[in-house]
Amino acid sequence: MAMTSSALLLDIPASAAITEPPDVFTRRESNVRSYCRSFPAVFAKSRGATMWDEEGRAYIDFFAGAGTVNYGHNEPRLVQAVIEYLSGDGIVHSLDLHTVAKRAFLEEFERTVLEPRGMAHRVQCPGPTGTNAVEAALKLARKVTGRRTVVAFSNGYHGMTLGALAVTANPLARAGAGVPLPHVRVAPYEGNQGVATTEALDALSQQLLLADQQDGGVAAIILECIQGEGGVNAASTEWLQGVAARAQAHGALLIVDDIQAGCGRSGTFFSFEPAGIDPDIILLSKAIGGVGMPMALVLHRPEHDCWQPGEHNGTFRGFNLAFVAATAALRHFWRDDVLARSVARHGAIVTDALAEMVRAHPACALSTRGRGLMQGLRCEDPALAARIGRAAWDRGLVIERSGREDEVVKLMPPLVIRDDELGRGLEILAEALHAATH
Questions:
Q1: Cα–Cα distances in Å, from 295 out to 25, 108, 127, 298?
Q2: How far is it between the farthest Cα atoms of the chain?
Q3: How far, in whole angstroms, is CA 289 from its chain's centroid?
Q4: Does residue 45 surpass a pLDDT of 50?
Q5: CA angle 19, 23, 29 (to 5 degrees)
Q6: Which pLDDT band holds residue 22 (cuts at 50, 70, 90)?
């Protein structure tokens, strides 16, 4: 990557540069910060699949804000929609008042996403983050069924607030709660620690039976069709259909957390579509906001819409800039199948490239996982994954790790990444793997 062209693209005025010492982050920001430790730069500008730091160095982005910027950084048409709305004195904050921005989004979401899939689901805006959506879904499932127990899965990740944390498997995250996290049973996710499909479904049946006998039944089963933070584990159609059938048989609502894997990340708008299942509740956040605008949705069947007015609320449950950006994203990317076909093509390129890396390093015990543009390279040795990540960063590639021990190098580039950017990013990853093993 030529530094000259990157510097020209950056074009940041001197007055915009940070004037405090670089250690202001260390001096003033909480120790809880995390991603900046893996990617130690001060970022200043981004466009598409590229980010630039304040010194003008370019980085190819295989992280995409943990799946938030599916449509690329600062997609011009989405940014322009937001600018025009603000320039016209459009209302920004409205709680859950009716606004023209919300109406436009709901009409577009109905027309482009729900109606073509035969979905009658209602749309709830619970607050701006994914964990807000999870909390609302768990409350609703318990309200609908009158039961308390929820079944979650090993290696699952659903958020950091107490209810969402209770159904999250990560032990470090759970330990931070400081209180018990009750009313949750955990079943093995298909493939985790070698658990086969039939074995995983049998274990789920056992947990449901115990809950029926001891807890008065199960309110909901919550799952990710592709576990993102848990290691890019993609569930099979057989397992997903088996889970859905068992939920129905036991009177439990099926909640699909599509916060990271949704909005086209897996190749279809919803990650569960290839399996042909029909969840009671679907959770969206991250990319639904279009250009990184904070937004979350809970989609639930009409018969489950038993909320009393104001029974679940929040100050930022109607962020109109997010409605505007989301509406533009749906119009530009989901009224036809061009993006979905592009994700399928690029996903195949990633699959082939990762398979070649596995073949080229037989002694490293590598394996691949995931689908679409949510794939991973699993390392038997987590230390190798860490070395790969550092070497990739040094070469100008932003890429994170996930899994129980951060043993999976996770690839999540923007869905709109150009062929040359994707190719160069995969080249860097291959170079990083070679460097990490020599």
A1: 27, 16, 7, 11
A2: 68
A3: 12
A4: yes
A5: 105
A6: low
For the segment 203-213, the average pLDDT, to the nearest whole number, is: 98
Percent of the chain with pLDDT over 70: 95
List of domains in the chain: 3-67+337-436 (3.90.1150.10), 78-333 (3.40.640.10)
| Residue among 277, 295, 228, 222 at smallest CA distance from 253 | 222
| Residue among 340, 362, 369 nearest 264 (CA) | 340
* b/e sequence 400-425, b meaning 16+ C-beta within 10 Å: bbbbbebbbbbbbbbbbbeeebbebb
Of the CA atoms within 13 Å of residue 237, those in its CB half-sphere come to 4
Nearest residue to 347 via CA among 243, 437, 226 = 226
Residues found in the chain: 438
% of the chain with per-residue pLDDT over 90: 93
pLDDT at position 340 over 50: yes
Q: Is the dihedral of CA 144, 147, 153, 156 positive or negative?
A: positive
